Each structure stands twice: as structure tokens, then as C-alpha cells.
Amino acid sequence: MIEGNVPELAKKIAEKLNAKLIKTQTRIFPDGESKVTLSENPGKYCIVVYSTFPPVDSNLIKVLAVISKAKEHAQEVTAIIPYMGYARQDREFLPGEIVTMKVLNRLFRGVGTSKIIVVDIHSKIGLKQFAMKTENISAIPDLVKYFQKIKLKNPLVVSPDKGGEQRAKMFASSFGSDYIALTKNRDRKTGKVKIMTSKLAVQDRDLILVDDMISTGGSIIKATEFLKKQKCRRVFVACTHALLMNDAEVRIKKAGVTKIVSANTIPGKTSIVDISDTIVDAIK
Ligand code: R5P
Predict the structure, then answer these.
(1) Which residues contact 275 (CB under 8 A, 6 or more apart)?
(2) Closest ligand 1 atom to 222 CA
(3) What is the pLDDT of residues 200-258, one digit of tens each?
(4) Among 121, 189, 200, 205, which residue's Cβ finds the most Cβ atoms within 10 Å?
């Protein structure tokens, strides 16, 4: 198994699978080119663990290079991409837009990927662009287990938008609470987010905002500001992928979020929920 750029997660998966862990060394040249070297060549069956978090394009070329090298020795290469960048580019929203997920399919196929396993991919439509075996697993059960250990007052699960309603429903049903989904509007050109829901009865309740990813923090901040105005108690955030670009974490806390809890698909301070067991179950 090749450890890639999420070494702690890869180590846990390798230990649970009793697989040998091959290390990678990455060198970035002054012109921005990256060069990855494997500590040794893999055997017949190889698993590559590589997240395509920012810098997305750079990590993408690295994972493709690693798979390509692995395929020179292995019969089958399974790519575990815990965070799949570009998953939001799954359809042509505005005329002329490129469906980059289609391009990723060609790239991953071209280097010889047999199967791709992703975690809570933003859009399953994106995954349908792949002409190989794919599997989308969810970190929600692991996130729920974390929240079951916290003492919450009359908790309510909230999705910041209608698109995430099923995710909130899944979280709430295994957590044992009710759920709601706000109506969010995002300007396709500026990316600005607006909450369209007008009123909610959340007074004095602890809320868990559930989302697949936090990028700029705009969605979570707008939702939190709205929920705080409705006089809720504390706001927690449960998300799978915490990209937390720039000062997103500071701005989210400033908006009134008590705690951000994310899965270890992307290394970071908030990535405290381990999903290695869930990934191992998918591999087996
Ligand atoms: C949107 O549909 C997604 O589920 C996330 O809510 C969104 O991508 C998060 O992005 P940001 O943090 O920039 O609002």
C-alpha cells in the first residue's frame, strides 16, 4: 500500500489490513513541478491513498503519477481518494463550462486505475462519469459516533442547504434526532451565499450543522448567523472534508460556531474523526 499525502490515515488502514506500507517522497522544483519517488515498488495488488485537497491540481498530478508508477508493477491498483477535488464540477451549470469529472475519468483510466474509493463525494453524478469500479463511502456513521458522546440540549440536525437534506436525514436518523434543511442560494458567478429560509423554531436548542465539506466557510457562516438570530443555543459543525481555506476557521468561530468536527480525509486541526475502519470495510 502506498501512503500518499494522508500518512496517518494510510498507516491506520495498512495496519488494519496487515499490508506493507510504501512511503513516498515528494520534491517540488522551483518552477512548481512536483516529483514523487516511491521507497520501493509495490507487489501484485496495490492500494494508493491520496487525497486531492489543495493544492488540488498539484495533488492530482501526484496521485496520477503514483498510480502510473504502481501500475508498472501491480496487476490491480485501487485508488482511495478520501477527498476528491473537482467533484463539484459534475455538470454544465453555465454554457461552456467543462465537466472536469469527465476529464478526471480519462486521467485515472489512462494511468491504469482499477477502482476508485471516495468518501462522501460532493456529487454522485460526478462519480457516474467514471468508467471503472467506484465506491462512495460515508463518514457520517463515524461523525455520529463522535456526537453521541457529547451532551447536547434538545439537539437538532441542520443542513445548510436543500442539496444536503439527505445527508442531514441520514445523520439525524442514526443520531436519533429530528432534522431540517435550510434554503440556500449561491450566486453562480460571484459564489456569494444567501439563506432564503425566513423563520425557524430552534430557540434554546443545540444544533449540529451537517455538510460534506467546508471550503471558504461561506455556507456555514451564513447558516450560523441565521440560526443564531433565531436564538438557538450552541452550533456545532459536523463535516467530512474540512478544507477551511484561508481564515475560514477563524471566521466560522467568529460567527458563533462552538466546535468544528471533521473526518481525517484531510489532515488538519479539526480532523478528529477517524474513518480508517470504514475504509477498511469497503476494501474488504
Ligand atoms: C455545497 O453544496 C456544499 O455541500 C458545501 O456546502 C459547500 O461546497 C461549502 O463551500 P463553502 O464553505 O465555500 O461555502
Answers:
(1) 9, 82, 119, 137, 139, 142, 263, 264, 265
(2) 14
(3) 889 999 999 999 999 999 999 999 999 999 999 999 999 999 999 999 999 999 999 99
(4) 121
**Average confidence (pLDDT) over 87-103:** 94
**What is the pLDDT at residue 195?**
83
Domain boundaries, given as residue ranges, for the chain: 2-138+275-283, 140-264
CA of 266 to the centre of ligand 1 (A): 16
The sign of the CA dihedral 117, 120, 121, 124 is positive
CA of 134 to the centre of ligand 1 (A): 23
Q: Which amino acid is at 108?
A: F
Asked if pLDDT for residue 189 goes beyond 90, the answer is no
Through-space distance between the first and last CA atoms of the chain, rounded to whole angstroms: 14
Of 186, 190, 211, the one to substitute when testing ligand 1's pocket (max ligand atoms within 8 A of C-beta) is 211
Write out pLDDT tens, residues 13-70: 999 999 999 999 999 999 999 999 999 999 999 999 999 999 999 999 999 999 999 9
Which residues, listed in sequence order, are joined to residue 181 by a DSSP beta bridge? Answer: 159
- Indicate the CATH number for domain 2-138+275-283: 3.40.50.2020
CATH of 140-264, one of 1.20.1250.20, 3.40.50.2020, 3.30.1360.120, 3.30.450.20: 3.40.50.2020
Note if 184 is an active site residue.
yes
